[in-house]
Amino acid sequence: xxxxxxxxxxxxxxxxxxxxxxxxxxxxxxxxxxxxxxxxxxxxxxxxxxxxxxxxxxxxxxxxxxxxxxxxxxxxxxxxxxxxxxxxxxxxxxxxxxxxxxxxxxxxxxxxxxxxxxxxxxxxxxxxxxxxxxxxxxxxxxxxxxxxxxxxxxxxxxxxxxxxxxxxxxxxxxxxxxxxxxxxxxxxxxxxxxxxxxxxxxxxxxxxxxxxxxxxxxxxxxxx
Length: 224
Prior knowledge:
The protein is mainly α. The chain is 59% helix and 2% strand.
């Protein structure tokens, strides 16, 4: 009798847990969407889809929570390669989509380059913008105007101060985009991690509860 009751209870418990996990799964999905929406601008994602990282398009990579949490040297190297091979101009509408995407990233996330900018020697030195053609190659600029503090898409060309882009002495974003992206991802993944931990705790409690209840039911049957 006890085993029969335990079996029925166990089946009901499993059904209940499956329903609960389904609901929590929906919650996890929603949390992931909410956490990541607007983290990367629409203008930045499409061009980044042309760059691969660990077998994934870099644009889609920003939605892969497990991999994003583990930023590493490979991530930085891929970003640096993307910048140094593709950055051709500080414009938002050049012939290179990836170059445009970097400029959008600088404006939206208040970062500059991949590594921290500390002066006129920086990540842009090996880009086509500095080695082939562009204001950097012409020695009129050391970093893009899009890296300057307080500028927007509509005014960066006219409002960026020379102390920022020409001499790199002040009014520029010092933080590299690698560190900035890492901060954004780690902060936005917190809701997802919280839901995952909740799921694990509920699963453990359900398992323990089923064992205890079955043992108690068996003991009461033996006593009768």
